[in-house]
Beta-phosphoglucomutase (Enterococcus alcedinis), 216 residues
Amino acid sequence: MKKGFIFDLDGVITDTAKYHYLAWKYLAETIDIEIDIVFNEQLKGISRMDSLERILAHGNKSDAFTLSEKEALAHQKNTHYVELLQQLSPADLLPGVHEFLTEAKQKQIPCGIASASKNAPFILEKLEVADDFQIIVNPDTLKKGKPDPEIFLKAAEMLHITPEEAVAFEDAQAGLDAIKAAGMYAVGVLSGEALHGADILVHRLDELSIETLLAT
Ligand code: BG6
Ligand code: MG
């Protein structure tokens, strides 16, 4: 029997990948690096600084900046990203998410967020779903990012459930690998790229039956 749901945010609850992409692409251009939408797939689920490192490596500029310059670049990207997020509203919830969260609430199934994003609380407020989640893991408290299982294990601990009692949702391969390494049941949410290792794959959350998931 499953007792709780743990969600990635970007790409599962709402589609912010397009805003991350716009902000990174703009930032990369200021340092003469070109990225495209295919390259952007590699950044899904990866922390802000790790994303910057991948972009610098892509442009053969891994050693071109000091740590404080890199922090300034990441900050610049985030300022632009947060500007883009201002337009988010409940209409930006991905299809089926509102219905799924409403039913989970009715059934008193605790829900948590395991996202690498430091902007998660702000995004949940804009989407008007902050109250639907009992816990949000603060990525600043973690030693390792996805695909390490730490963030999902921490979410389960905060929800007072075991990993075996958790169903976790991810749209990125790094996140799915983290869920499986945590020993949890994995729902892969497809948004284009193929995903490997999920226990079940869906395009939208309303393809799932909560009853069936809980009985898994
Ligand atoms: C993840 C996204 O959810 O959060 C990544 O998939 C992003 O693309 C990461 O880099 C960190 O987000 P933020 O908002 O802290 O820069
Ligand atoms: Mg994601």
User: Anything to note?
Assistant: The CA atoms of residues 171 and 189 lie 5 Å apart.
